Amino acid sequence: MFKKILIANRGEVALRIMRAARELGVKTVAVYSTEDADTYPVKYADEAVCIGPAQATKSYLVIPNIIAAAEITGAEAIHPGYGFLAENADFARACADNGITFIGPNGDCIEKMGDKATARETMKSCGVPTVPGSEGLIDTVDEAREFAESVGFPVLIKATAGGGGKGMREVHDPADLEKEFLAARAEAGAAFGNDAVYLEKLVLSPRHVEIQVLADNFGNRVALCERDCSVQRRHQKLIEEAPSPALSDDLRRAMSVAAIKAVRAVDYRSAGTVEFLLAPDGNFYFMEMNTRVQVEHPVSELITGTDIIKEQIRIAANEPMTCADRAPFTPFGHAMEFRINAEDPEHGFRPCPGTITRFEPPSGPGVRVESYVHSGTRISPYYDSMVAKLIVYGQDREEALARGRRALDEFVIEGIKTTLPFHRRVLDNQVFCDGQATTDFIETQMGDLL
Questions:
Q1: Is the peptide bond before 53 cis (omega within 30 degrees of 0)?
Q2: Phi, psi of 85, deg, nearest 5
Q3: 3-class SS at 393?
Q4: Can you list the domains of the chain with their CATH numbers?
Q5: Quick one: which of 11, 23, 16 has its CA closest to 314?
Q6: Closest by alpha carbon to 93, among 75, 108, 115?
Q7: Rounded to two decimals, what is the model's pTM?
């Protein structure tokens, strides 16, 4: 096991990793921008190194500064968390080149799965179902039109790099194809430095269901059941739950088998997630693989009794995972996660940075809050707007819903606008309560917020 690791991130995920490391007896190093100098994760870590000014492009995204911080503190490994450099193949390779363990898959694996067109072809070759799509990248509007006419509208234009909905456009009307194709390429080029796109047939009103996987260096590969992430806005997840109310035992088993096929196909070693679209007819299709730990990992931890961050660190330290002997997993209980962001849902979810004047998180049975803030914390405009994650757990979905309502009512955040009222409203929506939410839930059920 490592003696010391550096966390190349900030906020709640940095604190989450530090806590797991402390339980493993591992010292931690925080890196921080000048904007984050007084934040709790910086104070919680055993050591801290400033790596630059507030802008992420001058601090959290500067690979040489992070490598230097690891070297001067003697950190043997770097955990990237999620976001920033978590899925940057060059960062993983830079760690290896400098004799530092990257807590995640190797650079080649990140690169292979990070390019969505390549990942899609890899999945097709190993028998994982994929949405009908273009053969490779689409370079021109004429090529896009030819494919769209062959499969029929609607179609989905997708950037091969990146994620988070950037460079992604739905096209329902043939007259909009050229405009959306050019817009998708421009957005992808600006966001990822890569404007390449491909096309897929658009699956209407699907669910977004993903399988959490772990794989180590000893041949152990496990699927920690599924998460349903269908409640989202502009392809950004807002609520996640596990298990999915839409899956039967047979469908869970089939999706888990497909996810393990994906892991084997790229010789994956670490924690990761294989994401699928679940169509209304019960067919599921590979969407992408996230080669990192995800924001919503706590719900999988609760229904399987597994600490995913600890297992990820063990795998990177060349130790066998401790949960393999419990596979195959059957979910017990039900968990939900609500992302509490500094956004105003009544005004298009616009960002609301500022200083929190009162922060009183809920507690009690089945309630877990992951956050780095307290009264007086300033939510910076420079970074992601997440303030906290509220996770609730019950013996079944009804109890999880009841605890979610109770915890949201108890949660007090003042000084900034947050998404707390939005989440409370969702839990009063009959479609969601019946377990029928699909990826167009906000558009069909909460159109006044768009």
A1: no
A2: -100, 15
A3: strand
A4: 4-103 (3.40.50.20), 132-201 (3.30.1490.20), 207-449 (3.30.470.20)
A5: 23
A6: 108
A7: 0.91
What would the pLDDT profile of 236-256 be if each residue is shown by its tens digit? 999 999 999 999 999 999 999
| Single-letter amino acid, residue 366 | G
Tokens of 158: 């997708």
Contact present, 275 and 208 (Cβ < 8 Å)? yes
Distances (CA, A) of 443 to 163, 318, 336, 433: 21, 46, 21, 17
b/e per residue, 204-241, with b = 16+ CB within 10 A?
eebbbbbbbbbbbeeebbbbbbbbbbbbbbeeebbbbb
Single-letter amino acid, residue 97: D
> Are 269 and 321 contacting, i.e. CB atoms less than 8 angstroms apart?
no
Cis peptide before 154 (omega within 30 of 0): yes
Q: What angle do CA 406, 411, 415 make, to 5 degrees?
A: 155
Q: What is the dihedral of CA 429, 420, 362, 13, to 10 degrees?
A: 110
For 220, 224, 332, 410, the CA distances from 327, given in Å and listed in that order, are 10, 8, 13, 37
Distance separating alpha carbons of residues 392 and 21, to the nearest angstrom: 23
CA distance 84 to 91: 10
The partner residues of 278 in beta bridges, in order of sequence, read 207, 284
Q: Looking at this protein, which amino acid is placed at residue 38?
A: D
292 is catalytic: yes
Using the CB atoms, write b or e for 15-50: b if 16+ within 10 Å.
bbbbbbbeebebbbbbbbbebbeebbbbebbebbbb
Q: Contact 25/314 with Cβ under 8 angstroms?
A: no
Reduced to 3 states (helix: H, G, I; strand: E, B; else coil), residue 420 is helix
Candidates 16, 221, 269, 292; catalytic one:
292
Tell me: the pLDDT tens digits for 195-207?
999 999 999 999 9
